[in-house]
Amino acid sequence: MSATGASEETSARGAPDGPWWWSRRRSMVLDIMLGVASAAECAAEGVGFAHGARMPVAFGVLLGLIVGSTLVLRRRWAIAVVLISIAVTPAEMGVLLGVVGLYTLAASEVPRRISAVLAGMAGAGTFLVTMIRFRQDNPQEDLGSALWEAPLFSLTITLALTAPPVLLGLYVRARRRLVESLRERADGLERELSLLAERAEERAEWARNEERTRIAREMHDVVAHRVSLMVVHAAALQAVALKDPEKASKNAALVGDMGRQALTELRQMLGVLRSDAPAEQKPVPLASVAVAASAAAEAATASATESAEDADADAGGPRLAELEALVGQSRAAGMAVDLSVEGEERRYAARVEQTAYRVVQEALTNVHKHAPGASTRIRLAHRGAEIAVLVENGPSERGAADAGLPSGGNGLVGMKERVSTLGGGFVSGPTEAGGFRVSAVIPDRTRPRPDMAEGDRAKTA
């Protein structure tokens, strides 16, 4: 376990690049230099210890070299270094060893209780040795002055040797913990912002998918209905071309009108796509994306809803007032269509009216495709907070089950998606008489925007 603030801070930044237990080569060089200085100091002090203990000088020097050089291990075994310094305190050697060892111990992750006990032991040993040495160096007959001079001097020396390194080590330890806490917070914030950015990207992708689905529905409704009527009129034109030129000319005019209407609606839809196409995006730094991730996520979700609500109206989408014209086109193609309206007519939100219109349009398209010549009944009911649509056709009078027109099988799915998006109900299926029924109930949960002028509403209609 690393002991000092420098080593801990370095280990938190990345993998250690120093040998053995050192996190950095610079730390290794510093410890070696301190070990050499401590060994030299202890060796010099070992000479005096050898004379006082009446031992060979070589033994004292060797002991000092061994004891002082243990300072190199301070980052690995801080407790052992402090215990060695306490053990050699009676020999009056290892001042640098004790000071640096206490600092390293206080700055390490050793429990504070152990650090306090060892610091107290080191202070007590220094105090006793200093006081004994003071009495030996200053023998006095007047014990009155010696009683307070020796303890005061010893206490001063003890505090000078133990308090500064311990306090400095505690400060470095607290500072390192603060830095680590701030780094953890920064890492957590970066992870959170990355998650927000990913969530915003997911919501944006969801919005794009919703927009593609909506465009696919619009393209299907526009192209399928118009082209189906064009095919029916083309078949009628081919049948009466030689027998009734006047009727053939009328059918040809109808085919041309329907083709022009289809092209007009396609141009309007493509115009909306071009106007809504986003500008070329430039690379954005991760920090900027992360700061705006929450707003981008909300904007992405709102974009799908607003585009779905307003795109048709901005492009001049169909409204309920155009149902008569829609029914008239099917009648002109030879279909017997009966349209009945119940309840008090009133204006609805653009999306509600367009959904009801598309349901009727797709139902008539399916009749042209799968039950040519069948009589059809359309019922539109205005209720208090909703609008109900019922389209029901009988069996094909021509005896044909299908007109041979291609079908992707997405018509009913698209109708159900439109109605479900507004929170309504949709039911479809065959009838007992052999026909088919489509029923939809659309709640009027959305309202026209209050900032739209009446002229603008009429223009969108």
Automatic annotation (TrEMBL):
It is an enzyme of class 2 (transferase). GO terms for molecular function: ATP binding; phosphorelay sensor kinase activity; protein dimerization activity. Keywords: ATP-binding, Coiled coil, Kinase, Membrane, Nucleotide-binding, Phosphoprotein, Transferase, Transmembrane, Transmembrane helix, Two-component regulatory system. The keyword Membrane applies. Residues 211-276 form the Signal transduction histidine kinase subgroup 3 dimerisation and phosphoacceptor domain. It catalyses: ATP + protein L-histidine = ADP + protein N-phospho-L-histidine. Residues 172-210 form a coiled coil. One of its GO terms (cellular component) is membrane. Residues 437-461 are annotated as: Disordered. Residues 444-461 have a biased composition (Basic and acidic residues). It comes from the Bacteria. Its EC number is 2.7.13.3. The chain crosses the membrane at residues 57-73, 79-102, 114-132, 152-172. The keyword Transport does not apply. This is histidine kinase.
